[in-house]
Amino acid sequence: MQWLIDRGQPRLAQELSRIFLNWYNVCAVYAATADLKAGRDQGFRL
Q1: pTM higher than 0.85 for the full model?
Q2: What is the residue-wise DSSP string for 2-36?
Q3: If we measure between CA atoms, which residue out of 4, 23, 6, 24 comes closest to residue 14?
């Protein structure tokens, strides 16, 4: 990301970060759904 920013492409770096974070969030939702379906509900913890 810093490489893109250093080359004058901060918007592209931001969009790539957003794509990664969205993908990561979707993976977490799928994992939580699978856990619920398998009866492994752990609840919300901090």
Answers
A1: no
A2: HHHHHTT-HHHHHHHHHHHHHHHHHHHHHHHHHHH
A3: 4
The alpha carbons of the chain give a radius of gyration, in whole angstroms, of 16
Predicted confidence (pLDDT) per residue in 1-46, tens digit: 899 999 999 999 999 999 999 999 999 999 988 888 887 666 665 5
* 4: its two tokens: 């893109």
Please report, for residues 6, 10, 22, the alpha-carbon distance to residue 27 in angstroms, rounded to integers and kept in the order given: 30, 26, 9
**Cα–Cα dist 17/38, whole Å:** 32
